[in-house]
UniProtKB/TrEMBL annotation:
Keywords: Calcium, Disulfide bond, Glycoprotein, Lyase, Metal-binding, Repeat, Signal, Zinc. Gene3D superfamilies: TolB, C-terminal domain. Residues 1-22 form the signal peptide. This is peptidylamidoglycolate lyase. It comes from Homalodisca liturata. InterPro entries: 6-blade_b-propeller_TolB-like (IPR011042), NHL_repeat (IPR001258), PHM/PAL (IPR000720). Its cofactor is Zn(2+). Coiled coil: none annotated. Disulfide bonds join 185-205, 247-258. Belongs to the peptidyl-alpha-hydroxyglycine alpha-amidating lyase family.
Length: 373
């Protein structure tokens, strides 16, 4: 059973009457008020459902040996899948000022970068991706089981069919940053609709969203010049298909922005973009959706802003809850994913190089706060 919050309700009573004389106005007014109070029961409280709160699964995945875990997703059978960088680190020497990768001579990462994990124990069930990637970033498993991966060094996005180790579809030009319609520059994230429509967050340099049809043909670029929305490092994407909504972790603007996705098989979404922002949100690194809710994690922004998770209601443009692990603090969250059934949530970190598992808690005290030490 879901947790309940108690909210006060105020009622305003508007009464119309026609007293016979001016002298009877006061008596008539008070008599009508008394009559209403005698015959109506005014509720003092209202029960409101609270959103599920992620609760840490203590000890899950602690034995994993990982590089920087840049991405996490959940496949169609509920297994978390991560994208990590092995021994490679993104630092100030990785790119020049024109965004060209400076360590090509090192070759691709020579160990498996994609790991499929056991959702119960966190153990590695399968792995692949060696000798393919230079600087992994985002990972998404779409409704058909295809795996989408972004590499910021290659400036490319790849689609891998289930079981395949060669990409069936590639966006961007190898090692060539650019802003043309066939070029990408440090792409960060991919979202794919059940209709096959593709959204690519492009990314650190271009700060735009590209929409493609299922064949890989460009449909639209967000935002257009006439649109008020301005993005600054769109770092993660989440689709709310039923609402025809695409939400964006607008990292350096310290907010979540949502736009109409204009999906082929959905009812029309909002005509104008809107944002969710509050002082403690900080730089939003990762977002994931389930139902009408969006779960988000921020990264280090300032000493005054905690690194934590958020539960958002994009339709209300509101932050509903704050949460985090109970055994220690988040340090550098980079991505977030939730299972299709909404029971399990995963957060990947860069720095500690780990993956957290959370289970959704439905019974908790509304005023209880997650551990903030």
């Amino acid at each position: 059973m879901a947790a309940l919050a108690v909210l006060p309700i105020c009622y305003v009573l508007l009464l119309c009457y026609h007293p016979a004389t001016a002298n009877s106005i006061q008596d008539s007014f008070y008599n009508q008020i008394q009559n209403v109070l005698n015959h109506i029961r005014l509720p003092e409280e209202e029960e409101v459902l609270l959103p599920p709160r992620p609760k840490e699964v203590v000890g899950w995945g602690v034995n994993l040996k990982l590089g920087q875990v840049s991405g996490v997703t959940v496949n169609n059978v509920g297994q978390p899948v991560i994208f990590h960088r092995g021994p490679r680190i993104w630092d100030e020497r990785s790119f020049n000022k024109s965004h060209y990768f400076q360590q090509r001579s090192q070759g691709p990462i020579r160990e498996d970068t994609v790991l499929i994990l056991d959702p119960h124990s966190g153990a590695v069930l399968n792995s692949w991706g060696r000798d393919l990637f230079y600087l992994p970033h985002g990972i998404t498993v779409d409704p058909e089981g295809n795996t989408w991966l972004t590499d910021v060094a290659l400036h490319q996005v790849f689609k891998f069919s289930p079981g395949s180790r060669r990409p069936g579809l590639t966006f961007g030009q190898r090692f060539m940053p650019g802003h043309g319609v066939r070029q990408l520059c440090k792409p960060t994230s991919v979202a794919v609709a059940t209709s096959g429509e593709i959204f690519i967050a492009d990314g650190y340099c271009n700060s735009r969203i590209l929409k493609f049809d299922g064949n890989g043909d460009l449909v639209r670029v967000f935002p257009q010049q006439q649109e008020f929305l301005s993005l600054q490092v769109p770092h993660s994407l989440a689709l709310l298909e039923y609402r025809d909504l695409l939400c964006i972790a607008d990292r350096e603007n310290m907010r979540v922005a949502c736009i109409g996705a204009k999906l082929r098989d959905s009812r029309p979404g909002p005509s104008a973009a809107f944002t969710i922002q509050q002082p403690d949100m900080g730089r939003v690194f990762g977002i994931a959706s389930h139902g009408d809710l969006v779960y988000a994690v921020n990264g280090y922004s300032s000493p005054m802003i905690p690194v934590q998770g958020f539960t958002l209601d994009p339709l209300a443009e509101a932050v509903l809850d704050h949460w985090g692990p109970t055994t220690k603090l988040f340090q550098s969250p980079h991505d977030i994913a939730i299972s299709q059934d909404g029971h399990s949530l995963y957060v990947s970190e860069i720095g500690p190089n780990r993956v957290w598992k959370f289970e959704m808690q439905h019974n908790y005290e509304p005023n209880s706060e997650p551990n903030t030490f």
